Amino acid sequence: MSIKAENRLHFGVPIFEASLPALESRREELVTTLLQMRDTDSQGIARSNQRGWHSQDALHKSEEPILKWLTDQIYQLGSQLIRHSEGLPADSSILLGSLWANVNDFGAWNAPHAHLPCEWSGVLYIDVNEDPQEKENGIAPGDLMFFDPVPVGAPYRKSSTVSYTPKNGTLFLFPGYLMHMVAPHYDDKPRISMAFNFRLGDVLNSFAR
Ligand SMILES: [Fe+2]
């Protein structure tokens, strides 16, 4: 897979932004599948989600063809970026450890959190408001916000947060230690994203037993 990605490198931390153009033709099918999934498992699970729905976190093991396809797309893109960032050989072991869906209705948000001990984490936007009208002090509803791990701000460093307004088909990949949150979403149409964690096989195998 040939990919185009930008390394945003905020706070000296790699934050990759890439796009998955193949998603567009299958987006509608995916939205239908995920909303049906929410209907059958309306409780979901509780993580950083506040009022939002968080699916079970092993969707990478689903037999649903659209989810198998998406898992493969995320794995190809994510593993290539991780190998590039860490200078790992092509045969290094990279595992997709979890994959889940987030559906945020009006007023839902995700509290600040990190994804340790997973080495790399990410998000892929499936159905979001790409052009929110309201923006307060540089932050729009539904923005993804990252926090500087050394949040001292001025005069030592730049602003201690950075926020991104999501676009459908955009994928962000970042180290699992990086704190982030999702700003409240104020739209009647649900905001749908997929999130995932990667593990490095070589790290997993290096623990003393
Ligand atoms: Fe997260």
Report the structural category. Answer: alpha+beta
Q: List the total number of helices.
A: 3
What would the principal axes of the Cα set say about the shape?
globular
How many domains in all?
Answer: 1
Q: What is the CATH C level class, in words?
A: Mainly Beta
- Neighbour order of strands in the largest sheet: 1-2-10-7-12-5-4
CATH-defined superfamily: q2cbj1_9rhob like domain
Count of beta strands: 12
- Beta-strand proportion: 25-35%
Q: Could you describe the largest sheet, including whether it forms a barrel? A: 7 strands, antiparallel
What name does the CATH topology carry?
Jelly Rolls
Short key terms for the protein model shown above:
209 residues, alpha+beta, Jelly Rolls, 7-stranded antiparallel sheet, 5-stranded antiparallel sheet, 3 helices, 19% helix, binds fe (ii) ion
Please give a structural write-up:
By secondary structure, the chain is α+β, with helices and mostly antiparallel strands. It has a single domain, classed as Sandwich (Jelly Rolls), CATH 2.60.120.620. It has 3 helices and 12 strands. A 7-stranded antiparallel β-sheet has the order 1-2-10-7-12-5-4. A hairpin with an 8-residue loop joins strand 1 and strand 2. It is globular, with a radius of gyration of 17 Å. The termini are far apart. The mean pLDDT is 94. The site of fe (ii) ion has 5 residues, from loops.
